[in-house]
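Revision sheet: structure tokens.
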Amino acid sequence: MAKTESGWNIDDAAALYGVRDWGAGYFDLSENGDVSVKLNFPTGEVSVSLMDIVSGIRQRGHEMPVLLRIENLLDARIAQLNEAFRSAISRAGYQGQYRGVFPVKVNQQAQVIEEIVAFGSRYGHGLEAGSKPEMVLALAALHEDGLLVLNGYKDREFIDLGLWAIKLGYRCFFVIESLAELPLILERSEALGVRPLIGARIKVTAKVGGLWTETSGDRSSFGLSSTQLISVVDSLKARGYLDCLQLLHCHLGSQIPNIQDIRAGVQEAARYYADLVGEGVPLAYLDLGGGLAVDYVGCRTSHVHSRNYNLDEYCGDIVETVMEVLDSQGIAHPHLVTESGRATVAYSSMLFFDVLDVARFEAEPLPSALHESVHEKLRALFSLLQSLDATDLQQSYNDAIFYRDEIRDLFKRGQLSLRERSLGENLFLAVAQAIASRLEGKSDIPPGLEGLRESLADIYYGNFSVFQSLPDTWAIGQLFPVVPLHRHLERPTREGIISDLTCDCDGKLDNFIVGPHERKTLPLHPLKDGEDYLLGVFLMGAYQETLGDLHNLFGDTHVVSVRINADGGFDVMKEISGDSIADVLSYVEYNPDTLFDGFRKTCEDAVRRGKISVAERQQILEDFSARLRGYTYYKK
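Predicted:
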């Protein structure tokens, strides 16, 4: 591939941002320097520039920020998961089937659930619900042949609706999470004359790595101990309902990075399954919950944001492990169920936003010499800059900090003017930048200088809210790939962090995937006058859309769903305008009409007192009304 004049090309950019690693074959860079989405059709591979999609979104009246969903990516993930299990089952000679379910809690948005159910129907892909609202939407969306797994605590209303679903023909399993649920399930079953389908959730002791490790082990909030499990079996036998217990459920965790942890958990669950069958329990399904990880970093290791296995390994290891346990005892193979949520939806959703401004931590031009009247501390700092010791950068930096702090103290005591302090701060920045430039490319950076580059990084101000759109980055340190959507033919020459619009120091992105590594700053391009600079956050389809809050009353962004076509074009399937200011105010108990009327009275009173004219009153009210109806995010 030809290099540009700067010796930079698309492959360099792809390696820097890791697009071909975390992109899993779905994302790449086009020849013109844009991020593109790639999909396979019977007629061949199709690549579409995301900037072309942005242009189409804007032509339809939606400005940044925008949440983009690509329906084909949902379809592709469902197909890959089901086909990978089918292949593993066929290779191993496994006698059961695979029946996937999508856990609704991972992304409850109607467009997502509708697409999963519609495309997943060819595989009998089902849903998992953990609350009454989730069960209601699942029953309304799911086809009768889809499996419905009901987890979480259950009251009479929950149970009655599930029993009616069974009577309607749904394969709807009540998963018992605690002993208290069983008597109520049986009581309502007898009252309605419907025999339930029952599952039992066990607490496996195998511990897994990653961020979510508390869903397994003795102290897990959900699931039955071995003693409680036997109690359930005995109670069902005594009541004549043992034939209803057909599913064994366990959940190892979410985003499990190490395949060995998965094998250990599956092996323990299979041992439970085998012994229950030995007890006469007519089990037919083994539900292994979630855990299939997304490689957010793209390094394929046991890093908490990665995974050291691929989809084929995951499916093959589950099938083989279950067979190893059950075949030795001559037990029929169950239908395998997994509840892969994150791996199903992560790739399909991405957030696009524009950069509004940038703050640079750079020294202003300095004089060639200082006047003799300048304070000695300023002259000492200037002298340090002039004779920077390349052999001991740490000592030079320590001296610079000492002089800067002395200058600040002198200012506080009134012994230096504001202009003199400004000069001192500028000199310190110049020293810090000179030291940082000498550290470029060095592997043996002194410990005291390790954070210097981060302290000098630019702050790019993005038109979005971390708390609304990317809450996991703030809450649990989740990493998402962040990449400029364009300009990849240009070498990025700046280092920056990204601040959002909220007036909160936590509203920022300051941990990034750069190549296969984590870094505190992201390589970015300098802004150009009169041109937008657009960034994308990828792999954020799991949980982010539901967990978002209203910090500073920044509401939901615009949402656009597109479908890529085999000819390289795309169709905008659905558009949902983001929250207006009136919308978010109503969420916090304000009535927009009342607000307008109160402001109208204020303006009318100002007319009576001669502060504004009638014409000005009208203009002010029109502006106020327009703001109420307008987007909560900023417009250039």
